[in-house]
Amino acid sequence: MQPSNTSGTLIGRMSSQPPLSPKAPLPSGPATTTAGLPSRVLLTGAGGFIATAVGRLLVEAGVDVTGVDVRSEEARQRANLSAGAWSKIINADVLDVDLRSLLRSVDAIVHLAGSPGVQSSWAGGFDHHVRNNVVTTQRLLEAALDAPVGRIVVASSSSVYGHVGQGSADERSPLAPLSPYGASKAAMEHVVGAYVERGLSVTPLRYFTVYGPHQRPDMAMHRMIEATRGGPVFRVRGDGEQLRNFTFVDDAARATVAALQSDLAPGLPVNVGGSGTASVNEVLALIEELAGAEVKRETSVEVPGDPGRTAANIDRARQILRWSPQVSLRDGLAAQIAWQAARARQNAHA
Ligand SMILES: NC(=O)c1ccc[n+]([C@@H]2O[C@H](COP(=O)([O-])OP(=O)(O)OC[C@H]3O[C@@H](n4cnc5c(N)ncnc54)[C@H](O)[C@@H]3O)[C@@H](O)[C@H]2O)c1
Questions:
Q1: Following DSSP, what letter does each residue of 256-293 receive, concatenated?
Q2: Active-site residue flag, 161
Q3: Could you identify the atom of ligand 1 that is nearest to the CA of residue 133?
Q4: pLDDT for 152-200, tens place per residue?
């Protein structure tokens, strides 16, 4: 199947391409079952960090995956590196592509296109976050009203909760974002609510800090690991005692696929939190132990929008998605360190 009448460029079929190194050894969780999986999925933001892992799981399960990403060359490279993450990829902005015709040929949508990143959302950066996090979602859902699609899974974030003072945030906890980024995701969830009222079956997944191979270079763990290898000095913001719930990327991907398969009530958000909760200082120490090298660092002031603590209650995901995180922080970090090392070796030989 090739999507027709789209304004984006069809780049080509990807699933049959052989994987290229570096392919980091991945800690494995249970395999995804194929029960209840849609046969054709539109994956937006397909070249992104989380989407690449989702696409790979879906393709391995025999699903026909059409990816859309505005950064298609990077997307294509990422998918090659991770053994083919989609059946095909369209080089287009979600806001430019002819969504109505595209949606005629899929059964479900995983919408991961978006602008992540807290610091980039301040000042004029907010326009970009509103465009890519809120407007893309609204346009996609509007087009889905006229399409025969079933489940739609969209990427929300733990940032909607802001600082979690004690205990853990469950899905009924108040939304109190501390950053324009978190506010854009909360707004997106309200948009979802409006379209659920009009009959769409949409599930927002609130991912808690995702890490692992292919992690975005702007993310803290990626920069910490680079700082063990002669990269830029890592800046510890404040005292480094900020606590984060960390989710290994393959665990996040399995939760996303499980959300496609489940019979969740439309509109119910679900926390996707991992098995590792640790402070920035603890992560630094673990990386130093696993990498066998010091994370070159300096301290600097706290930045606005950075919660002191995030903590996920994942009872809903356990009960309804029958999902739980499988990969420990130690194993997941070891995989990410191996991936970054392999990537550096490959770049050195390129
Ligand atoms: N990584 C995390 O820890 C984390 C945590 C919570 C939520 N999220 C959310 O999950 C989603 C994926 O995050 P990620 O870390 O994989 O980010 P990423 O930047 O690696 O992936 C996002 C992809 O979307 C694409 N994209 C953005 N706007 C687009 C548009 N208008 N049209 C087409 N493509 C577009 C980008 O080119 C990129 O490849 C985002 O919505 C993010 O906000 C991520």
A1: HHHHHHS-PPTT--EEE--SEEEEHHHHHHHHHHHHTS
A2: no
A3: 41
A4: 999 999 999 999 998 999 999 999 999 999 999 999 999 999 999 999 9
